Amino acid sequence: MAPLLLVEAATLLSNTGNGVANVALPWLVLERTGSPTAAGVVAAATALPMLLSGLVSGTVVDLLGRRRTALVSDTLSAVSVAAIPVVDALLGLNLGWIVALAVLGAVFDPAGLTARETLLPAAAQAAGWRIERANGVHEAVWGLAFLIGPGVGGVLIAAIGPGSTLWVTATGFVLAVAMIAAVRLPGAGRPERPPSGLWRGTVEGLRFVWQDRLLRTIALLTMVLAALYLPVEGVLLPAWFVGRGEPARLGALLMAMSAGGVVGALASGVAGRLIRRHTLMVIALVVIGMALVGLATLPPFPAMIGFAVAIGLAYGPVNPLSNYAMQTRTPERLRGRVVGVMTSFAYAAGPAGYLLAGPLVEWLGLRTAFLVLAVALLVATLGAAPLPALRALDEPPRYPPAPPGGPTNRVEERVPLNGQYAPATRRDAPRVQGRVRVEQLWPPAPDRDAPVRG
């Protein structure tokens, strides 16, 4: 149980620091420049290196090892974030400094995120948890971090200013390093079968994701959601509350979204037993779009809180379901690369969304720009709901998660074959109509990656 607790504690601490920064950095830019476009430029400049580093982050994890990558990533992130208030005190910050230091900090985030997420199946195995339960808790911890972070950020901005508030972000990263340093898990060290190179390993991960219909669909859907939703938190809501001089309300609204996300993620494990995963994903997507349109009308603050909670509740199951798809459709040796590639798809859309949001606000006004993005997201989610590829969420796992170095397990299904039943070695083996499938779950055979079907 201890490794799972440590991984989740590191996730909580690291992302709490990021949650504080999500409030402090846009506020700092708007305070110094008064320009929503400048805030959009900083957000886009931060997202672009995350795209590039996110694309190769999974390969880095598979080359260096999961634990080591997480340690290095969070250490470098702590240093880069702490440099912002240091430079402010010594030289004074301008937009160029803010962009440069924000970019420096963003470069390291995807590798740390990928490393901690690839540790999750082994940590869940060590704790004796089902992977669906671990995914729900992991995403709930993620949401809890952004529930705590923005609230703390709003309070600290009002008390000590946005620059000094970034010390809290650096502290979160330092504490996360301490937690990961104590993790001991099979497969957390240097891998036995690393990629043959950074570029070749990344291409292998990209090819795997693109050839899998479900993973490809989730990756593209994630891009659309990120492009249309991230500017809401990074540009539109900060611009609205900065104009009204209400940093605490911005923090409270982001906390409400995160609170809904925590509950939604925790409930996803239970909901997944009551309804099909595909149905749960469709409901989540449609509710996200509808609730964001409600929020975009910028109603009175209590109503904004209600819409924010609804967005969080609906978004809660999306990431656990995406994680489940990655974990059960990817061989262990490729897991880091696939997680990194899937994450980079979200980062890919960020720069476009951020760069669009600022000029859109100055051209159309905040309310109209907000409605345009929200309606576009609703149209996208309604269009994604009937996609046949999402039904693959209910297919039997191709690669049931197991920790590296664990015992070799063989699964032989007991299914009808010419009117007879083949013997079964596991009652919980996935059933495939009309044939017997034998899977070597762990480790994969040296001459193949896919399960043998006969």
UniProtKB/TrEMBL annotation:
Record-level GO cellular component terms: plasma membrane
Highest taxon listed in the record's lineage: Bacteria
Membrane topology: Multi-pass membrane protein
Segments forming domain Major facilitator superfamily (MFS) profile: 3-392
Stretches the record annotates as Disordered: 393-454
GO molecular function: transmembrane transporter activity
Pfam families tied to this protein: MFS_1
Localization of this protein: Cell inner membrane
Predominant cellular place of this UniProt entry's protein: membrane
CDD domains: MFS_MefA_like
Keyword Transmembrane helix: yes
Keywords attached to this entry: Cell membrane, Membrane, Transmembrane, Transmembrane helix, Transport
Protein's name according to its UniProt entry: Multidrug efflux pump Tap
Organism: Micromonospora echinofusca
